Amino acid sequence: MKNVTDRTSNPFGLRPPFDRTGPDERTAAFGYGDANADFHVIGDHPGVHGGKRTGVPFTETDSGLAIQDVFRETGFVDGSEREPDLENLYWNYVHMCCLPNGHEPTQAEYDELERFFDAELRAINAHILLPVGERATDHVLREYTTQRGRIELDMADLHAREIRGRGFMVVPINDPSAWEAGDREALVERLEAILASDYRQTKGVATLVG
């Protein structure tokens, strides 16, 4: 089933349950992109992967722009860095709310936002989930596959691998701040290989295997 919306930012009108920002700051970096996307990239929070000023995930920070650059090269992203155009791609965070500089989300705040993240993920209903970094990867593997107990959370080893989930294929991405020689190229090659495959069969296969 396809979503019918022309909204690029926060297409489902989510309202975060708390606000720790100043009066002139953005409340959150809401989900952004193509609400009918097959590819869904999941980051940590705006302080890590960007969006505190733009309101757009994967902007501003070095790690965010490195992710954006990979998806530009593979044909998903066009337009400006601050407000890009996404095709067949959706971006969001496990913790969408912006926090004051130097503050990290508490576990309670991650837990409070989990239901919002889950609702948006299921509404997008992508074929390929691409969590970025340890926090997002751990969450996606625990909640959307049956394999977290069998997988060591070694991001260097998991980077750009295909993991079958419950109705999804999961491709973890090591945080760009930890990339070594060849990591960027490995991710580009994996995306190109998936695009060249019949990846829309992922849901049926993953449901049986994951």
TrEMBL record:
It comes from the Archaea. One of its GO terms (molecular function) is 4 iron, 4 sulfur cluster binding. Residues 30-180 form the Uracil-DNA glycosylase-like domain. InterPro entries: UDG_Type-4/5 (IPR051536), Uracil-DNA_glycosylase-like (IPR005122), Uracil-DNA_glycosylase-like_sf (IPR036895). GO terms for biological process: DNA repair. Residues 1-11 have a biased composition (Polar residues). Keywords: 4Fe-4S, DNA damage, DNA repair, Hydrolase, Iron, Iron-sulfur, Metal-binding. SUPFAM superfamilies: Uracil-DNA glycosylase-like (SSF52141). Residues 1-24 are annotated as: Disordered. This is Uracil-DNA glycosylase.
